Amino acid sequence: MQTVGVRHLAAQPDLWAARQQMALSLGWHIVIACFGVGFPALVVGAEALGIRRRDPDLRRLARRWSKVLAVLFAVGAVSGTILSFELGILWPGLMRTFGDVWGLPFAIEGIAFFVEAIFVGLYLYGWDRMPPVAHVLSGVPIVVAGVASAWFVVTANAWMNQPRGFDVQHYLATGEVVLDVDPWAAMFNPATPPQTTHMVLAAFMVAGFGTAAVYAAAMLRGRTDRYHRLGFLLPFAMAAAITPVQIGVGDWAARFLADNQPVKLAALEGLHRTQAGAPLTIGGLYIDGEVRYGIEIPGGLSALAHHDPDAVVLGLEEVPPDERPPVAVVRTAFQVMVGIGTGLLLLGGWFAVVWWRRRRLPRSRAFLWLAVAAGPLTAVALEAGWVATEVGRQPWIVYGVMRVEDAVTTAPNIRFGYYALVVVYAALTVGTVFVLRRLAASSDPETDEVPQVAEHPA
């Protein structure tokens, strides 16, 4: 597409600061948001299993995890609020032009957030005050609302990759008026299925591997009692089971890009020239317009993108240089994500083989060290995936329709807002870590009281 629009009369000298501020906010919030999506399922699942099996260790885990859930929910609410303000403050051109088109998922996400907040309060207050089964059921809406919140927000981002729900051709011709607005078509755009599925699964992986890493570290320090083994087993098994599914969804997303965002796919793979039987290069660095030092698989990219090793894959040469993303950044981020994902798959396979053969966790300290590393590395893979997604769309804020410089505010000195936000997020990080550490130090799993479940004959 070619964009024809009304450029800002005054250039924004702080465009870099606006981009960095949004990147910082998104990058910080996305990790907390992932725990908000995936962690409630662990909490409610542990309590439900504890009740069903009359297992006090599982119920102690659920009770302790519910306190962590409360802290992360509060912090996520703060960072999410900052993001909502930044959309209007930093990108008024985007919101003014397309607010009617893509505003619906944000409104529905707000409803999901309030539902989640209400039931988080009920769940936390309900310990010892509600019958066990009723208490578990009060946690189910937290799980559903958390997933729904993520789904609706990601549909908005998917729309930025595949804009629908308005007369695109009219806007490209005039650059002034958006006609024939259809918010539902915008929300259910072609990018929504692969992108929302990829994100929700990633959230469960971050929550699972991140939680398991804490208990793996404790086990390395000698705390191998049943409570800590369960604390590792439940989240790790969940994340390990999701990992191969996520890789399959990644293949789906790659084929989607080949058909709908070929320039982004070319940037992800560092492919400059359009060619049949395009090779897939594993590793390496993008230098001076080509990938060097990587392992090349002939026809691999064509097979990945089109399930045909002889298929034609479009290269970066298909668009002018000013419409190409920064390839080195995009490709490096993509390689990091894929590399970590492959490592997580192998680690999960190790766990699955030992569990299948011996019905126990691997006893190797190397496995536990790798499980500790898997926690932060999963978050790194998440961030790398979002860098590939967002930077790979550049220079467009709305793909093929609006460029970033046409959406940013013309207000002066916004770099000072970025500097202030660095301080805010540094304080949030320190405060969150401090509270979680105090919470861990003040709780003793051996003395945590849980209400007794009435014994019934089997």
Question: What would you say this structure looks like, in words?
Answer:
- The chain is mainly alpha-helical.
- The chain has one domain.
- It is 70% helix and 5% strand.
- The protein is built from 15 helices and eight strands.
- The strands form four sheets. A two-stranded antiparallel ribbon has the order 1-6.
- β7 (396-398) and β8 (402-403) form a beta hairpin.
- α2 (56-90) packs antiparallel against α4.
- It is globular.
- The model is unreliable at 1-10 and 453-458 (pLDDT under 50).
What is this structure's SSE topology?
Blueprint: H1 15-53, H2 56-90, H3 92-102, H4 104-126, H5 132-161, H6 168-174, H7 183-187, H8 192-220, H9 226-260, H10 262-269, E1 275-276, E2 280-282, E3 285-287, E4 290-292, E5 295-297, H11 300-306, E6 312-313, H12 327-358, H13 365-391, E7 396-398, E8 402-403, H14 404-407, H15 415-442
Antiparallel strand pairs: 1-6, 2-5, 3-4, 7-8
Give a concise summary.
With about 450 residues, the chain is mainly alpha-helical. The chain contains 15 helices and eight strands.
Molecular shape: globular
Radius of gyration: 24 Å
By DSSP (H or I, 4+ residues per run), the number of helices equals 15
Characterize the main sheet.
Answer: 2 strands, antiparallel
Order of helices and strands: HHHHHHHHHHEEEEEHEHHEEHH
Strand order of the largest sheet: 1-6
What would the keywords be for this entry?
globular, disordered N terminus, 458 residues, mainly alpha
